[in-house]
């Protein structure tokens, strides 16, 4: 024998009821089925609203009743052939008349009592069960209808009555022993007190009705049919990757239900748990899906599941109350008085923490009881507060609880470490923690604004063996940025398959437009989408990054803009990693550079800027490795400008110097403003960054720039700069001729030694380490305590959009710990 319960959406209309009939029919072919039903979807609310509106003197209640009537009439007409409709239609009409009578009484008295609300609400299940029983009969299923009020007995606590278990079990057993049918249909939720007056079991109470029947009759199973395919690892509206839990123990299901997983009404579990009856959660709209099995014969091997954690749940609208004071230390009875004060006001405590110093007790309650709680506790401790032994109750609001639930967590070290580590890496601050010695539930109180992120972070940490989500916000989709987008597109499938990484670009911006897409911007059509995007605003872009509060967020700066470089601090403070191609932050005044590094360290975020020197060449990484392994950089000699190396490699006097510079710009080697390259500032920044990363405290002012550019060319606009270079062709020719006369090449060299740095054009003779440096290549020579005679040399392309984008890509992967 099986007990099946169908919820409101499963029986919301005639076509759904037909599905239910088909499910029941399949079971009834082999076994007896007791079907417990909820009211048609939405009817309970309409009934309660009718009563409340009537009490408030609003005649709107009549419209609600008309809707209730219409919904049931429609269902009858669709389910039952015309010839057989009249009996059922008149039953509905008679019931509607009763509802009208109750409501007009309420209207006249301007008052609705809990008793009246129960009477009204009960009509929902009463009507639906009558209708469903008639529909089953219509489908040829032998069916008997039975009013639950004749065997479910409660006290008189209207709207949330407590069941008299002994009397109820006796009543259920007696009835089903004396009556036989393939199928019974019973209204859920409703019961009767000892005077036979209608009571209800609280919202979700139909599940409980079914569980009571299943337990009393030792049913083979209790099947709770819903509009979802089972209990899920997290709320799928919050965590899109949540999946159905195949098997779960009773206590895990109970923990998850108590902690906000609304699939099961918590009291439902207890009766079936006591009898070890398996509880199946199934989907009426996808009956072929396996659903979730709670409890039952899940012993030995079956209990060993793939995951340590069964599910992640949360409760919102939480307030934290803290009672603190030196007068509490070592004195018994303080916590008792706190809980008594709350309990007298019928305030339930959701979570408790107390440190071993006993200096404070912290409890979490539903935020709606905050004012009452504060008053009650302050009153209870009024004497101690006056004497200064205890401080007035402190309260914090806008909080939520996230909880990991799983029996396998017991005795397994590292689970809470993983939980708090994952939350911490994503900048989620934890306000209070609770874990009982059963180790089935680890709860953390966090800001409500962080709940979505926290659930996704934890889901990823404990369930997503499939892939990790990475969320990118990219500012500066110009030359290098566009290449990065191309590379991200090209590598998307590879990263997903081989690195288990799903990379989504959530936001992009150039100086004109910006664009955001919740689940990722199309990496094929982003240019068109961006062109039609909203006007760019850096503050708004940053606000979006912060507000979206997504897990594993990385901010990527591929501009050369000072304002963009200024936002890193704000992001790092929120544990958002920053990947910068832009050199301005790393070359900013030393205290600012240092502060950013500290922020990254404190807030567990990465600040990476490998492409600041030598594009994608592993220059900064190598330097960091040298330092970490205890080496000491003594001097650096380098050619660090791709643009200048290209220009001097290609300028042979046959073409104008200005034309060669133009070519470098067109090929994407120069800075957005080419004067940064030609004037030496770009190289100054690079040698400064290298010196700093080598451990030296330096600033731009400490670097000597022996510029080869005529000063006149460095004023005015970029167009004027080109014109000036054309006019100064003789100057550049002279530089070339002088070098050739010495059988040398021109190289713009950066040097660092004894804490001093300089940049400038030099004559490089054959045999010099810098001589054979072609195209736009860079070379860096590190002389260190360990590399004394021969330097450590890094050489290769030092500019170009493609290579630079690949360096940014590599930094993104590092920031993702991939
Ligand atoms: N090109 C190279 O070979 C190379 C090599 C290493 C590093 N870099 C660095 O990469 C960065 C970008 O170079 P690029 O060649 O792609 O330049 P680019 O001019 O082609 O692109 C810069 C982009 O930044 C955008 N931008 C500027 N200010 C902005 C703002 N406030 N908000 C939003 N977007 C803004 C511009 O609209 C443009 O899309 C520079 O910092 C450069 O030093 C370039
Ligand atoms: N403009 C830079 C790009 C690399 O930082 C160069 O030419 O070297």
TrEMBL record:
It holds the Pfam family ACT_9. One of its GO terms (biological process) is lysine biosynthetic process via diaminopimelate. One of its GO terms (molecular function) is ATP binding. SUPFAM superfamilies: ACT-like, Carbamate kinase-like, Glyceraldehyde-3-phosphate dehydrogenase-like, C-terminal domain, NAD(P)-binding Rossmann-fold domains. It comes from the Bacteria. It catalyses: L-homoserine + NAD(+) = L-aspartate 4-semialdehyde + NADH + H(+); L-homoserine + NADP(+) = L-aspartate 4-semialdehyde + NADPH + H(+); L-aspartate + ATP = 4-phospho-L-aspartate + ADP. Keywords: Amino-acid biosynthesis, ATP-binding, Kinase, Lysine biosynthesis, Metal-binding, Methionine biosynthesis, Multifunctional enzyme, NAD, NADP, Nucleotide-binding, Oxidoreductase, Sodium, Threonine biosynthesis, Transferase. Its cofactor is a metal cation. The keyword Amino-acid biosynthesis applies. Pathway: Amino-acid biosynthesis; L-lysine biosynthesis via DAP pathway; (S)-tetrahydrodipicolinate from L-aspartate: step 1/4; Amino-acid biosynthesis; L-threonine biosynthesis; L-threonine from L-aspartate: step 3/5; Amino-acid biosynthesis; L-threonine biosynthesis; L-threonine from L-aspartate: step 1/5; Amino-acid biosynthesis; L-methionine biosynthesis via de novo pathway; L-homoserine from L-aspartate: step 3/3. Residues 404-477 form the ACT domain. Homotetramer. Bifunctional aspartate kinase and homoserine dehydrogenase that catalyzes the first and the third steps toward the synthesis of lysine, methionine and threonine from aspartate. In the C-terminal section; belongs to the homoserine dehydrogenase family. In the N-terminal section; belongs to the aspartokinase family. This is Aspartokinase. It comes from Niabella soli DSM 19437.
